[in-house]
Amino acid sequence: MKPVILIATLAATAFVGAAEPPPFDIHKKAVTPEEKAQRKAYFEKRFLEHTGGKILRPGTRKGTVYYINCQKRAQADWLETSRSYMSEYSKFNVALKDGSFDLADPKVEGNASLFVVDDDKLPALLVAPESRWAIVNVAPLAKEVKPVFFEARVKKELTRGFCLLCGASNSQFPRALTGGVTGPSDLDKFPDYRLPVDIEKRMASYMEPFGVTPAVMSTYRQACKEGWAPAPANDYQKQVAEAVAKEKSETLKGPKSPRKIVFDPKKGE
């Protein structure tokens, strides 16, 4: 709990400052779920009041990587879980749609495509980097008789397929899913389908030539200061825009009591 309390304390210091204290004891260690929800709502509101919230910086998050579901054996919600996670992790625009796969002539959607197929004649994972496609084949993974293991294997292999499609073939962390896997049973050794922190940047640099760039977020306040903020979308952003405009106006006016410099002939000699 100590890191959570520390974060809460820092947040209170950042957003409350000299204003009235929050309506709870930020130093209290044991909190109920209701108190956690109260704290979260309070600091989210203060963040919105101070910053206007986060917005996407223009010119970022270009291109789209598609999951294309070409099978029925693995459930669609498993693919959606993977798509959602990889979108959040990579900060790419990642979409999911139904389609078909022809090994002789794959129809790539968007800037790159990860096809999910069910074919006993194909390997579990196949990547064609220059052609901008990869397949995850659920057929070899389905040989596990326990459904819970099958679901876990599919999600892990989807992570591996997405990473290899996006050029992230390794990690400095030895137990990362991008490491060596000799067969479907090896996937069971990994705790889940998530990735360590160092793979994200590898994806970003690799996918840039393919026209895919990650999202870069900024606060509405910072956007107002830099001059690229869109029109306010809510009262929080309107207040922030007015506050920043006032700050800029006061800066242009200069100090209220400018310093007077008096020439001293003796010092000028």
Give a structural overview:
This protein has 269 residues and is of the alpha/beta class. It folds into two domains: 2-56, no CATH class; 65-210, Collagenase (Catalytic Domain), CATH 3.40.390. Helices cover 41% and strands 12% of the residues. It has helices spanning 2-15, 33-51, 76-90, 138-141, 147-165, 199-207, 220-226, 235-253, 265-268; strands spanning 54-56, 65-69, 94-98, 112-117, 125-128, 133-137, 217-219. The strands form two sheets. A five-stranded mixed sheet has the order 3-2-4-6-5. It has a two-stranded antiparallel ribbon with strand order 1-7. Strand 2 (65-69), helix 3 (76-90) and strand 3 (94-98) form a beta-alpha-beta unit. Helix 1 (2-15) packs parallel to helix 2, helix 2 crosses helix 8 and helix 7 packs parallel to helix 8 (235-253). The termini are far apart. The relative contact order is 0.13. The model is unreliable at 1-14 (pLDDT under 50).
Layout: helices, strands, pairs:
Layout: H1 2-15, H2 33-51, E1 54-56, E2 65-69, H3 76-90, E3 94-98, E4 112-117, E5 125-128, E6 133-137, H4 138-141, H5 147-165, H6 199-207, E7 217-219, H7 220-226, H8 235-253, H9 265-268
Parallel strand pairs: 2-3, 2-4, 4-6
Antiparallel strand pairs: 1-7, 5-6
Helix pairs in contact: 1-2, 2-8, 3-5, 7-8
Largest sheet: 5 strands, mixed
Residues in helices, as a percent range? 40-55%
Under CATH at level 1, the class of the largest domain stands as Alpha Beta
Tell me, rounded to a whole number, the average pLDDT: 88
If classified by CATH, what would the architecture of the largest domain be?
3-Layer(aba) Sandwich
Kindly report the spatial arrangement of strands forming the biggest sheet. Answer: 3-2-4-6-5
Going by CATH, the homologous superfamily of the largest domain would be Collagenase (Catalytic Domain)
Q: Which structural class do the helices and strands define?
A: alpha/beta
What is the gyration radius calculated from CA atoms?
A: 26 Å
- List low-confidence stretches: 1-14
